[in-house]
Amino acid sequence: MQRFEGLRKRDSFRLVSPYQEFPEPKCAVQSYLVPQSVQWFALVMRIAAGDLWKAVFSLVLMVGFGGFAQAATQKVCTEAEVKEAQKEADQLRDWDSVYRSFKRFAHCDEGGIAEEYSDSVGRLLARDWKHLNLFVRLTADQGFEQFVIRHVDETMSEDEAALVINNARLHCPTGAKRLCKSIADY
Questions:
Q1: Are 85 and 113 in contact (CB under 8 A)?
Q2: How far apart are CA 146 and CA 152, in angstroms?
Q3: Structure pTM?
Q4: In 128-185, where does DSSP find H-type helix?
Q5: How far is Cα 85 from Cα 60, in angstroms, rounded to an integer?
Q6: How far apart (Å, rounded) are the C-alpha atoms in residues 98 and 178?
Q7: pLDDT in tens for each of the 186 residues of the chain?
Q8: Cα separation of 24 and 16, whole Å?
Q9: Alpha carbon 165 to chain centroid distance?
């Protein structure tokens, strides 16, 4: 099925097929970008052509394979990294060391390692609040902020949790209200 494309050049119309062939990419960047743009264009053309079920199916496939490709590119935690991360995660004594560990082992953040990170984060927030400004500066890295907030969790003792909440509500540094709210609302 062919339709008139709505692009006009001085009262002229181009006849476009929804299944039109596209030229080969000329460089590596185009070879990466063209297939995605071609898929979206084909999806729009199928919708315009009335093939709604094909459009929905194509969209489901593109989203599904996109998530699969992203998962395939995530870094895998090796056994050596697991051992190093376990050794390091509960020995973190300041925000700089937490940040360095996050940069090295964020991809290993699960299970026992995650619990040890939670212990370190809880301990720092409860007992070393006076150095929170350093943490606030390090949150320029959004991933690090999310990492720390994720580790403000139920593994803290009730006493630590009460201290953290009290610190976040009553002793929040200037310019860190949103961060303190995130910590207090865990």
A1: yes
A2: 10
A3: 0.61
A4: 132-138, 142-150, 158-170, 177-184
A5: 38
A6: 21
A7: 444 444 444 444 444 444 545 455 444 444 444 455 555 556 555 566 666 666 566 566 666 655 544 444 578 999 999 999 999 998 899 999 999 999 999 999 999 999 999 999 999 999 999 999 999 999 999 999 999 999 999 999 999 999 999 999 999 998 899 999 999 997
A8: 18
A9: 26
- What's the N-to-C CA distance of the chain in angstroms? 56
* Bridge partners (DSSP) listed for residue 16: 3
List own/partner pairs for 38-44 with CB under 8 A and 24 or more apart.
42/18
Assigned token pair, 73: 């590119």
Long-range contacts from 101-106, C-beta under 8 angstroms, 24+ separation: 102/143, 102/144, 102/147, 105/77, 105/81, 106/143, 106/147
**Residues facing 3 on adjacent strands:** 16
Please report, as a single letter, which amino acid is at residue 163: L
Q: CB–CB of 1/18 below 8 Å?
A: yes
Query: How far apart are the C-alpha atoms of 25 and 61, rounded to whole Å?
Result: 23
